[in-house]
UniProtKB/TrEMBL annotation:
Name of the protein in question: CMP-sialic acid transporter 5
UniProt KW keywords: Membrane, Transmembrane, Transmembrane helix
Membrane topology: Multi-pass membrane protein
Keyword Transmembrane helix listed: yes
Top-level division of the source organism's lineage: Eukaryota
PANTHER family found in the cross-reference section: NUCLEOTIDE-SUGAR TRANSMEMBRANE TRANSPORTER
Length: 327
């Protein structure tokens, strides 16, 4: 009887490991390919807010389907409250909505590898805000890794500001519409990530429910912003789907599935596996950019890439441990 129980436990563990590997591989491919997909299939005429809103709607639909499949959707009517939802998801959702808009702007003005590498600075800001909000400390090795990451970001900023091989020939446009938006988005990502971690620890929200709530709140915030924003004016003048083609849905759907996968990887495997996913995604981005654009990485990217990989690997491998007091 005990042997049968152990066999069943091992089988469940193997099944979970297989799912974690599947989620990780899919997220690696999505995360690495997203900048390239967005640049290739999203025309410059597309209004940023429309693609973000469509992505949020797609995320809600995907999450609801998955909740219905695993049976958690039936329990929602008894457990869900508006106050609890706004407390857990309202602020992070508003922050993520702004972040997504900034990322969409940056996609169009940076090459894919540089975007992906600068986007990794969100790990530093996540560590900073988790310390401020949750009082989670960093080890000496982790602090050193964060400094390596900053060095990589500086290298990329200098390289992109002076490089002639970038997606735009105007250095000011590269800086203010490429580098600055992705770095501000990284700060916002760190803040929102810390708030989500607080919500999951206190409120015990599932990843699917958080996705639904944050997407809805974020979409409402974006809709309100269109009353005054340039994007709102452009939507009223040219229409919601101005510049869209059927192919524009490819990056939208890919991005929405990536949002679902992030929650799954984090909940099932934790931050260590997600760190490996981030590193692998950088390599995927570099490979795809060379294969499909025929553009080798710049010298600054080649110098910064190992710094990013080493810093993330060290940060994930040497977490802070509380020292035991000697008796």
């Amino acid at each position: 009887m005990a042997a049968t129980k152990r066999k069943g436990t091992n089988s469940d563990s193997d099944g979970m490991n297989a799912r974690v590997w599947l989620y990780s591989i899919l997220l690696t491919l999505q995360y690495g390919a997203q900048p390239l997909i967005s640049k290739r299939f999203t025309r410059r005429e597309v209004i940023v807010t429309t693609s973000v809103l469509t992505c949020e709607i797609a995320k809600v639909i995907c999450a609801l389907i998955l909740m219905a499949k695993n049976g958690s959707l039936k329990k929602l009517s008894n457990e869900w409250t508006l106050v609890g939802s706004l407390t857990a998801s309202g602020l992070p959702a508003a922050i993520y909505a702004v972040q997504n808009s900034l990322l969409q702007i940056s996609y169009k003005n940076l090459d894919s590898l540089t975007f992906s590498m600068l986007n990794q600075t969100k790990i530093f800001f996540t560590a900073l805000f988790t310390f401020i909000i949750l009082r989670q400390k960093q080890s000496i090795q982790q602090i050193g890794a964060l400094f390596l990451l900053i060095m990589a970001a500086v290298l990329l900023s200098v390289g992109e500001g002076s490089s002639k091989g970038s997606s735009s020939s105007n250095p000011d446009q590269i800086l203010f519409y490429g580098i600055v938006p992705v770095l501000v988005a990284s700060v916002l990502s760190g803040l929102a990530s810390a708030l989500c971690q607080w919500a999951s620890q206190v409120k015990k929200h599932s990843s699917y429910l958080m996705t639904v709530e944050m997407s809805i709140v974020g979409s409402l915030c974006l809709l309100v912003s269109t009353t005054k924003s340039p994007d709102g004016e452009a939507i009223r003048r040219y229409g919601f789907f101005h510049g869209w083609t059927p192919l524009t849905m490819i990056p939208v759907i890919a991005n929405s599935l990536g949002g679902i996968l992030v929650g799954l990887v984090t909940s099932h495997a934790g931050g260590v596996r997600k760190g490996f996913v981030i590193v692998s995604a950088l390599l995927v981005t570099a490979m795809l950019q060379f294969i499909f654009e025929g553009k080798p990485p710049s010298l600054y990217c080649l110098l910064a890439l190992p710094l990013v990989i080493i810093s993330i690997a060290i940060y994930q491998k040497y977490p802070y441990r509380v020292k035991k007091k000697e008796s």
